[in-house]
Design a protein that fits this description.
The complex is a heterodimer.
Chain A (H helix, E strand, L loop, with lengths): L9 H4 E3 L25 H5 L6 E6 L1 H13 L6 E5 L2 H5 L3 H16 L5 E7 H5 L4 H11 L4 E7 L10 H8 L13 E5 L10 H8 L3 E3 L7 H5 L6 E4 L5 H11 L3 E3 L6 H15 L7 H18 L3 E5 L6 H10 L3 E6 L8 H10 L4 E3 L17 E3 L1 H7 L4 E2 L9 H17 L4 H5 L17
Parallel strand pairs in A: 2-3, 2-4, 4-5, 6-7, 6-8, 8-9, 10-11, 10-13, 11-12, 13-14
Antiparallel strand pairs in A: 1-12
Helix pairs in contact in A: 5-7, 8-11, 13-17
Chain B lengths: L3 E2 L8 H9 L5 E4 L5 H8 L10 E4 L4 H6 L3 H14 L4 E4 L2 H5 L4 H12 L3 E4 L7 H16 L15 E5 L11 H11 L3 E6 L5 H5 L6 E4 L5 H11 L3 E3 L6 H10 L5 E2 L13 E6 L1 H15 L2 E6 L13 E2 L3 H8 L4 E4 L12 E4 L3 H4 L15
Parallel strand pairs in B: 2-3, 2-4, 4-5, 6-7, 6-8, 8-9, 9-10, 11-12, 11-14, 12-13, 14-15
Helix pairs in contact in B: 1-7, 4-6, 7-10
The chains are: A alpha/beta, B alpha/beta.
Chain lengths: 446, 377
């Protein structure tokens, strides 16, 4: 008979920050996967390129997750697949099978998409597929289609870039350098577009620039027109390498603006942005004061309500935790598996000033049976909401489009709203790709 | 090329099928895979994940471990997790990379069992087959490893015929009421249900299938286990769901303790009416629904078996269609079809369609339309 674990097991699933190592606090062991799926996967990410078609070549069980992602988005018509058998892997040429399968898909589609994202998988890497051969053959057969080199190879993700990081590089490969339009600025690398509250957008728009994000595009030609930008910006750590590579290839200046919650870091980032586009620098005292005021008002509303944060909500959970702690909020838990380089200073600060602050795993096997008593914790993020078993949470992923001083104020508003209005956590967190269409139902309760 | 899919999704895979089969039995299921299989399974192929705990984990295999053939962390981590949870058993499942590098799962199981002191067995999945293969193997290996090698001698006699229900998973019987409906209908028919492998069932009760007089295979996922019970304990098996007018024929077969009897097939050509229903999906479930519909509507029916390992569960005149091209071909001349709504996109445009959503195909897309299958006809 399975039993709920008691508090003694807490040690394995959470650590005081003072006892934690940077950048990986938790040892890799067997992994539990909680029923929380609001983050975007490679299917969601790839669908942002208008008119592009995705083709996966892999085993059936692995295929199931991606094909159902596309179907649950209502975009099954932009997804196809080729299944692999033992025969293909052991007795046939996997490379030839891959080429034949993709060609067969394109013939059956009856049309030529402008871009096909070909996803090779773990077995291609493991069996040493000749990727150049595969793409050469495809290119010879269909010279009017751009074949992007994409991967679904989680086997490599602990020792190299993740499939998402690789996709965020290759998805921009069709874009060619175009005559520069000084007003065009691309904001790329994050699936959740910056909202109107983000300082970056506001400043650019106020100064006559045209910031473009993937969500603004409605056609493949629009997508290609991003080659005319005078500046590329990324504000999401996982997208950094891809946008950097695009910028280098097209010789477009690049700026990474970390999604920090530190007033100093935000100020520095805004100064960098203004210098890059030729806007006069100014101080940010008004903005800081407004943030302080919002935080103070929020504190009055929340009182000592515990606040927990997870890494899927904001890419800089430690930075957010630091901001909240410095404004006297009761930060209870931070859920993360890995600490980004961006956060090293925040990690050191919190380790010194809040040594007992808990860092909590989201995948340790002990979590499966850990007690999750119903709580009134205000969670920021779906995983925090699930593990804290709370219906009060800020439902965002990948930063939620929040950035800078405007982002902090908007987050305060969202936190106040979350505190007042309960959500159906179960229904929300099980849906994939927050922000994407979701044409599916949730299981009946048991 | 038959392996390309444009309109239909692939079915739930074998790894997910195995996890689903063993879900409620109090064991620990470890998928030896880098990542992704667990998320895929619990999102799209498991309705119980949020509300009902089960110890299903992934090993997080890395490229370095795969290349070096290093199984030590798999063994260590499995033993460590087992020491926390003390599960009833441990099952290990394979995936493409360990399959390709020839991981010796038998040896890994021996090592785990020795260190953890918990019965451990291997389910021979490799992610390249469908859920029937995986669930079927999981049920088989569970019975093989954990049931007694001989039928207990002290099985007390019973007035009622004792039935072990085999092959029940939410992949075919998705509604939370379906398993209980099957049991209730059997009880109303005068049978004693000794176990239901493995829905609404505990580990201990599941093992008492050895006390059955006859097995009832409610999905092709139960066929391998049924054959094992037959070989080991002389327990005959009958296949079918006690639904609609099929019920009495099924009961008769159970009372007669028929063996390897697919009761629903008797209804295929029972009618003189040439009107033919084509049912597509898992053959036992859809065959039973087809039989019940045919009896109710005075027509014939034929089965298009869309899942693996179903050849013994269909007639020679029926068809096995294991990929999109084969499904399109099999449905090309059908005028009346019963199956998952996703099959509409590959059905002839003039065909009348009776929707019976199949969770193992359409996943969550039509989950709110899935009813107790025992009440459909």
């Amino acid at each position: 008979m399975l039993k709920k674990l008691d508090h003694k097991s807490q040690k394995a699933i959470s650590l005081k920050i003072s006892d934690s190592l940077f950048p990986k606090p938790f040892e890799s062991v067997l992994e539990y996967n909680p029923p929380v799926h609001g983050t975007w996967n490679i299917v969601h990410i790839g669908m942002q390129v208008p008119e592009a078609h995705q083709i996966y070549v892999c085993a059936e069980n692995c295929m199931r997750g991606v094909v159902m992602t596309a179907d649950e988005m209502g975009m099954g018509d932009r997804f196809s697949c080729v299944t692999l058998s033992e025969y293909d892997m052991l007795l046939k040429s996997l490379d030839d099978k891959t080429v034949e399968g993709i060609c067969d898909v394109i013939e059956k589609l009856g049309r030529h998409p402008p871009m096909v994202m070909v996803f090779l998988v773990c077995v291609h890497i493991y069996l040493g597929s000749d990727e150049d051969y595969i793409y050469r053959k495809l290119g010879e057969r269909y010279p009017d289609i751009f074949f992007a080199r994409c991967y679904m190879d989680p086997i490599s993700q602990r020792t190299g870039p993740t499939p998402e990081q690789k996709l965020r590089e290759s998805m921009f490969d069709p874009i060619k350098k175009l005559p520069e339009n000084k007003r065009d600025i691309n904001i790329l690398g994050c699936d959740i577009p910056l909202g109107d509250s983000a300082d970056v957008l506001r400043i650019l728009r106020e100064n006559g620039f045209v910031p473009r994000q993937l969500g603004d595009l409605s056609s493949f030609d629009d997508f290609l027109s991003m080659g005319s930008a005078s500046l590329n910006i990324c504000h999401y750590p996982t997208g950094d390498s891809g946008v950097k590579k695009l910028s280098k290839r097209l010789d477009i200046p690049y700026l990474y603006l970390s999604p920090s919650f530190s007033y100093d870091e935000i100020s520095d980032s805004l100064d960098k942005l203004k210098n890059a586009v030729g806007i006069k620098l100014s101080g940010y005292e008004n903005e800081k004061n407004e943030c302080d005021e919002c935080l103070s008002l929020l504190k009055d509303i929340l009182g000592d309500t515990p606040v927990s944060i997870d890494y899927t909500a904001v890419p800089r959970p430690l930075s957010l935790a630091r901001l909240l702690i410095e404004h006297s909020f009761n930060v209870k838990n931070i859920y993360l598996e890995f600490i980004n380089d961006d956060e090293e200073k925040d990690f050191i600060f919190l380790k010194k000033n809040c040594p007992s602050l808990p860092l909590c795993s989201t995948v340790r096997p002990e979590l499966r049976m850990a007690e999750r008593p119903k709580s009134d914790v205000l969670a920021i993020g779906q995983k925090a909401a699930y593990y804290e078993n709370t219906s009060r949470f800020v439902n965002i992923v990948e930063g939620g489009g929040l950035w800078g001083f405007g982002g902090i104020k908007e987050l305060c508003r969202l936190m106040g709203e979350a505190f007042r209005e309960e959500k159906d956590t179960r229904d929300i967190v099980m849906r994939k790709g927050l922000g994407c269409p979701s044409v599916c139902a949730m299981p009946e309760r048991r | 090329m038959k392996e390309s899919y444009i309109k239909l999704p692939v079915l739930t895979g074998d790894v997910s099928g195995a996890a689903s089969a063993l879900y409620e039995l109090g064991g620990m299921f470890v998928i030896h895979d880098p990542s992704g299989c667990n998320s895929t399974y619990n999102t799209h192929d498991e309705v119980r994940w949020y509300d009902m705990e089960s110890l299903i984990f992934i090993s997080g295999l890395t490229d370095v471990e795969a290349i070096n053939g290093d199984d030590s962390r798999l063994i260590k981590d499995t033993v460590e997790a087992a020491s926390y949870y003390k599960p009833n058993f441990i099952a290990l499942a394979n995936s493409p990379i360990p399959y390709l590098n020839g991981t010796d799962f038998s040896a890994v199981c021996r090592a785990v069992e020795k260190k953890a002191g918990i019965p451990t067995f291997y389910v021979e999945t490799n992610a390249m087959h469908d859920y029937i293969r995986g669930a079927g193997l999981a049920f088989y290996r569970f019975c093989e490893k954990l049931m007694t090698s001989k039928r207990p001698e002290n099985v007390s006699p019973s007035d009622n015929i004792r039935v072990a229900v085999l092959g029940a998973t939410p992949l075919d019987l998705t509604s939370k009421d379906s398993a209980e409906s099957i049991k209730n209908i059997l009880r109303e028919g005068g049978f004693e249900v000794v176990s239901c492998l493995a829905l609404d069932e505990t580990f201990e009760v599941a093992l008492s299938a050895v006390n059955a007089d006859v097995s009832l295979v409610v999905s092709s996922a139960g066929l391998r286990a049924a054959k094992l019970l037959n070989e080991r304990y002389d327990i005959p098996y009958v296949a079918g769901l006690p639904v609609g007018k099929l019920k009495e024929s099924l009961f008769e077969a159970l009372r007669e303790k028929s063996c390897a009897k697919n009761v629903y097939l008797d209804f295929e050509n029972m009618s003189d009416n040439k009107k033919t229903l084509t049912v597509i999906g898992e053959p036992v479930v859809m065959g039973s629904l087809g039989a019940a519909y045919a009896a109710e509507n005075d027509c014939r029916f034929r089965i298009v078996a869309a899942t693996e390992d179903g050849r013994e569960l269909i007639n020679e005149s029926d068809v096995s269609a294991l990929n999109e091209e084969a499904v399109i071909s099999a449905l090309s001349d059908a005028s009346l079809i019963m199956g998952d709504p996703m099959y509409r996109s590959v059905s002839p445009s003039g065909a009348k369609f009776i929707e019976v959503p199949h969770f193992a195909l359409s996943g969550r897309l039509y989950l709110d339309r899935i009813k107790d299958i025992m009440r459909l006809i």
